[in-house]
Write a structure and sequence with these properties.
Strand content: under 5%
Number of strands: 0
Radius of gyration: 18 Å
Largest sheet: none
């Protein structure tokens, strides 16, 4: 969502809401981090090449979602 010009009415409220949206990107980023650690730390996942590849793929998807969420939340407030 675009908040308009910084001097317009309601800009501060809109900017704070978009910052909360950017903060929400932490959830998929942490999920991606947990999946990355799981792929290399858990013996059952580390031993199975297909499962490890799938786990790392899901990790990349989670980080992609986090990046898109962050960009959607951070850019309009600039």
């Amino acid at each position: 969502m675009f908040c308009g010009d910084p001097g317009s009415s309601g800009y501060a409220t809109c900017a704070s809401q978009t910052q909360l949206f950017a903060l929400a990107s932490v959830i998929p980023a942490l999920l991606g981090l947990v999946l990355l650690v799981t792929a290399f730390a858990v013996p059952s996942v580390r031993g199975d090449r297909v499962l490890r590849t799938r786990t790392l793929s899901y990790c990349l998807v989670a980080w992609g979602i986090a990046a898109v969420t962050y960009v959607m939340g951070a850019l309009p407030s600039f």
